[in-house]
Amino acid sequence: MSAPMLSVENLGASYGAAQILYDLSLNVGRGEVVALMGRNGAGKTTTMKAIMGLMAQSTGKIRFDGHDISGRQPYEIARLGLGFTPEDRRIFSDLTVLENLDIGRQPPRKFSDGVPAPVWTEEKLLALFPNLGEMPNRPGGRMSGGEQQMLTVARTLMGNPLLILLDEPSEGVAPLIVELMANTILELKKAGVSILLSEQNVHFAELVSDRAYVLEKGQIQWNGTMAELAENIDIQRAYLTV
Amino acid sequence: MSFNAFLFQALNGLSAASGLFFVAAGLSLIFGVTRIVNIAHGSLYMIGTYIAYSIATKVGGAFGFWGGIVITALLVGLIGAAIEIVLLRRIYRAPELFQLLATFALVLVINDATLWIWGPEDLLGPRAPGLTGSIEVLGRRLPTYDIFLIFVGPFVLWMLHLALAKTRFGRLMRAATQDREMVGALGVNQAMLFTGVFALGALLAGLGGALQIAREPATLATDLIVIGDAFVVVVVGGMGSISGAYLAAVIIAEVKALCIGLGIVNFGGFTVNFSKLTLVAEFLVMAAVLIARPYGLLGREQVAVRSVAEPEEPLRPSTPATKIAGLILLVVLVCLPLIAKNSPYTLVLGIDVLIAVLFATSLHFIMGPGGMHSFGHAAYFGLGAYGAALLVKWFAAPMGLALAAAPMLALVGALLFGWFAVRLSGVYLAMLTLAFAQIVWAAVFQWETLTGGSNGVLGVWPSAPFDTRTPFYFLTLALAAFGVLLLRKFLFAPFGYAMRAGRDSPLRAEAIGLDVKRVHWLAFAIAGAVCGIAGGLFAFAKGSISPETIGVSRSIDGLVMVLLGGIQTLTGPIVGASVYAVLQDYMMRSTEYWRALLGGIILLLVLAFPSGIVGGFVKLISRRKTTSKAAS
Q: Residue B629 domain-assigned?
C-alpha cells in the first residue's frame, strides 16, 4: 500500500485541563472509507476537530497527502483538500442553499501524484441531492435536519476535497436520509474521495466502510476490517452497544 | 410650532441621520464579523474630517472637495486595515473586554496624533462646490448640500445591501457573522476577511467624516461624541443589522430635531424646554428600546460565540502571603503622611489613588464575579458626589451627613438602573448602563437651577477635624479599606458564590434554586453604593464637583483600571487603579501628549499581558511552578 492519505500518529488533545485524546494513531488510505466507531463522548468529534485544526493538539503528528498539517490553521488544512462536515452541521442559517454552497467553493485540485481530484459544481451537487435542487433559494435556517445534513455534505464537496472528515452523518435524521447518506458515501468512494467516518451505528458503518477503529475514552481500543468488527460481538458489546 | 416647521425639522433630521448611519454601519459590520466593539470608530470618523479638510483646502476646487471625499474614504480604509493587521490581529483570542481596552487606547493615540498634526483649533472646511445654494422648502431655506446628504444615506444603505447579497466577500461576511470558525474550516482565510471587514468599516467612517466638513468644523472632540452616538444607533438598530442602523439613525436624528423644533413648550403652567433634552434624548430612546426589545429594533438574540478565550479561573481566598502583603501595604499607607512629610503633593496623589481604588474595586465587583460589564459606572460615582455636594450646598449639611448620604443616593440609583440592566447581558447590558450614566450626566448638566449646570457645585470643603490634608487622607484610607474589605467579604460569602454561579451558568444556577437576576441586581446595588462613597470622597477632596468629572471618560477610566489589573483576580482592580491613577497624574504633568503616551502604554500592556497585570504575574508564577514540578 502506498503512503496513506491521512495519517495520525500519537495524537493527544485536551480542553483546558481535561485531556480528551491519548496517544491516538490511525490512518486512511487513498480511496478508503474508514469508520471511527465509539459511543457518545468517546472522542470521535474531538479527533476530527483536532485533525482539522479546530482545537489545539497537545502532542502528535498529523500528515495529509504528504504535508505535515500538525498545528496548522483550519483554512490552510482545508486548502490542502481536507473537508470537514460537522455533526451539528453548522449551516449558515441566514444564507440560502446556493449561498451556503458558495462559501465552500475552492478551486479544482490534484492529488500529490498529479491525478486530478473529482470536481464538484452546484449543478452536480443539486443533482446528487435532488431535495436541495428543489429549494436553491431557501435560507439554511428554514430547512429540515435531513436537508441540512445534505447541504453540509454538499458544501464541503464544493471545496473539491481529497478526503472528508464526516462526523456522524446518520445521527438524528430520517431513515430515508440515512440511506441517501450511505449511497452518497459509496458514490464519493467511487469518485476516488477518501472518507473518515465517525459513527455509532455498526449497521450503517458496515454498509459503507472498509476498515474500522474503535474508540473509547480517547484511545483506540481495537482496529481491523469492517467485516471483522461486524462479526466481533464482544468488541461491539464492550465499546459500541448501549 | 406649525406643521410646516415640524416637517422642516424632520428633513433636517434626515440629513443628520446619514452621517450617523455611516459610522454606525461600519461599527456594526466590524462587530458582526470580528466580535470586536471598536471604540476607535469615532476616531476614524474624526480622522476623516481632518484629512478631507486638508485635501479640500490644499488642493481646492471641485476636485479637492469631491475627489477629496473619495480619497479620504480610501485612506481611512487603509488606516483601518493597518490597525487590524498591526494590533487587533494579535488579540482576537483575548477576552472581549481586552479588545475594548485596546481600541480605547487607540482613541487616545489617534486623538493626540491628530492634535500633533493639525493643532488644537477647530477647522472649518469649504462649502461644497456645486451645492452651495439652498432651495426653499415649506417656506424655509434648506441648503442643497443637506438635501444631497439626505439621499446619500439610503444610497449607501442600498449599495451595502447589494454588496452583502451579491458579492462573494459580502456572503463571506454574512457567513462569518454567524460562524466564523466554520468559515475557516471551509478554507477561507479569516485574517484576510477580518482585515477586509475592518477596512470597509473604516472606509465608511472616513466617508461619514469627510462628508461632514461642509456642515461642521473638524474638531478634536468629535471622536467620543461620534462613538457615543454610533453606539446608541447600533444598539437601538440591533447589532449587526445594517438596515437597523439606518432606521435607528433616522429615529434618533428625528427625535433630536423635533426636540430642537419644539423648543420651550408650556403644559398648563409647566414649561419644558425640549431643546435642552437633545443631550439626553438619544439615551432615553436607547433605554426605552433596550427595555422593550433587548436586542434592538431589527436585531436578533446574539448567538453565543464559540469561545476562543480560556475559561475563567476560580477566585481563591487569599493565601497567608497575600494577607501579610496586604497588611504591610496598609501599614505603609498609614505611615504615608510621615514618609512623605516633605512632599505634600504625595498625600494629594494618595487620596486620588485611594478614591480610584474604591471606584475600580466596586466596578470590578459587578464586572468580574458578576460578569456584568458596566460602561456607566460613573453614574453612581456622580450620584454619590452630587448627593454629598448638594446637601452641603443647599442644606449646609455637615460632612459626616453628606458622606453618609452619598452611598444612599448611589444605592437608590443603582437599584433603579440595575433592575433594568440585569435583564440584559453582554454588549447590550454595557450599552444600557452607558445610557443610564449619560442620563445622570445630562440631568446634572441641564438642571442648572439645582446643580449649577456646567459650572458644577463649588465650595464643598470638608469640615473640621478633616479640613487639613492629613486627617482627610486618613479618612479616605479608612473608608477605602472598609469598602474594599466589605466587597471582599461579600465575594466569599454564599452571596458571592451565588453571584459567580449565576455568571458562569445562569440556567444551572436557577435550577438549583438561585434567583440569578435578583442576586445580580443586589450585587449591582452594593457596587453602586460603594462607588457612591468614592464619589462623595471625591467631591470633598476636590472641594467641588462638575459634570465633566462624572462623564463617559470616568466610566472608561474605571474600565481601564479594572482591565489593567486583570478582571479575574481581586487584587487586580487595586493594582490597576493605582497604576493608572499614578501614570495618568505623572504623564499629565510631564507632557502635552499624555493621552498618546497613556494609550501607548495601555497597548503595550494589552499585548504583553492579555490577562491584566496581576493576571499576568499569576500566570507567570503558576507556569514556573509547573515547570519546576516537571523538572523535579
A: no
